[in-house]
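Mods, move this if it's the wrong board.
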Amino acid sequence: MSNPVSPIRFALVGAGHIGERHARQMARCGLLTAVADIVPEKAQRLAQQWNARAYPSLETLLAAEKPQLVAICTPNYLHAPQSIQALEGGAHVLCEKPMCLTTREATAMIAASRRTTRHLWVVKQNRFNPPVRLLHDLLKDRRLGNIHSFQVNAIWHRPPAYYQQSDWHGRREKDGGILFTQFSHFVDLLVWLLGDIADVHSFHRNYGLRGIIDQEDTGVAILRLSNGSIGTLQYTVGAWNANMEGSFLLLGEKGTVRIGGQYLNELDYFRVAGMDTPALPLARPANEYGFYQGSMSNHDKVYDQLVRALNGEPADLPSAAEAARTVAFIERILSANPSSHL
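Not the wrong board. Structure tokens:
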């Protein structure tokens, strides 16, 4: 009689909103054994909910525990050092987006993964949205032919209270700006679907959050990609009162497709040679964070694939190298027009 497979031992650092989302999936897929947060009450509350142990830091957690995987759910500027720390502590790592804030950090994270022979994955849950999957499959099968142009719109709302509730939101050195914090998923999809930047011009301004954040609240990038296509990325957290739109338009030689809704969750337009408009599964609701909403709730799909990967099976998870391309893409946009002012 074969021995039963031991459940995966998970730990997480960062007991905020996104940490709670990871905790639910960890408990579903294995055992959440430990939670770390610099606010002891937060760590204790989440740990008690899942019968786990609480720690005041990742360092103390790793000294006492031997988790198979650590999820990094902390502020953006901590993603690189804490991922490296967890890898060097012997754990595989699942890092929340963004992977990090610089290509130098991304290189160091990948090097640590190779050095320790531990896996490093980055959460990209919007890849599982049914309309996004449709775009991916159309491009993979070349149903649209060559892509001539594209348009990506990310038009969301973040009120002053969002930035005033923490000491890191809205600080360039800690959150990296809205392309990293709100819209890295959109940039990831640009890279995943269409490829890297060949040339870029960008403009960015702070219209509505002056004195509250030290970065832009609105930007536009005009892009020429390595595949020859040209297009734009318009992004803002300045929509009045609510998130308006997250959309992706592709114009190819054999078809035009636009996915939209607020979170890339609807098929808005479909005209493709030789194809009828497909019926897609209903998309998941957005993540609710009190007075604002975030991206789609697909963390269950991320964890389903994560379990496959940890069990040595083929899994649909982006590599750390893929995530690093998103960081480099954002860096190119932000440095393309340094004369733009806030």
